[in-house]
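Render this sequence as a predicted structure.
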Amino acid sequence: MSGSSPAARLQGLFEGRRLTPTQRRIAHSMVRRAADAPFLSSVELAELAGVSQPSVTRFAVALGFDGYPALRRHLREVAPDGSESGTGGDEDVNEYQQAVRAEIENLRHLADLLADPAPVERAGRLLAGSRPLLVLGLRAASSQARGFGYFAAKVHPDVRVLDEGGSMVHDRIDAARRAGASVLLCFALPRHPREVVDALAYAREQGLTVVTVADSAFAPVAVHSDLLIPAAVGTGLAFDTACAPMLLGRVLLEAMCDGLPEAQARLEEFDARAAARGLFVE
């Protein structure tokens, strides 16, 4: 893992661990500040995560270390040669550039994650096999769900986007299940609405397999997901940025197309109709 990004190394350290909600919060904070993590004191990390300092110590012990100093020493040992406290070189860039650089780092992390294509390929097969296919995204994630649904509808015979909350979500899940749906794809971004967590729990109660794109493997939706693929959001601006989740959505579309033998024919048919109707200005 020495050639992977700081966030990917941290993610690998946490994966497979049985962490409490507080510990997942600490882990998520470390991933979001991956470059700085090896240099944060326990007090600084506690303030960053909004937890107590003893919680940070218990977190380190849960990961198998004697205490937080041992965890921090490990992170420094596996950091690339010449790495600094995460601030080196940032003095000459403005906040907008820093936000873009953070998104570039999120995309690098996603690229590292996709070095193992098995989870995406599995997700693609699941999405392709569901008739209809439900796509859920509320509040901040609604644009991700609509974007996926727009393109998926060009190749998948029945895509149903759920981008508005309320009691109707359960009704639409019921209707899709009766029509034969087997999978729900969820885009979950912070701040995580309670109704998304409730909808996923209900979907699984009804026998649906839940595939989730979330900002972290430690997101609240993880417990109700059969397959979760993380893609970090940027937090450097007043509102989060979601380049990596959007790109992961397109990757899932590609994997879904691989599982739909008729996908290419459907695309060619759409292009022919679009040309006949003059839909696009070339």
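Summary. Confidence is low (pLDDT under 50) at residues 84-89. The two ends are 46 Å apart (CA to CA).
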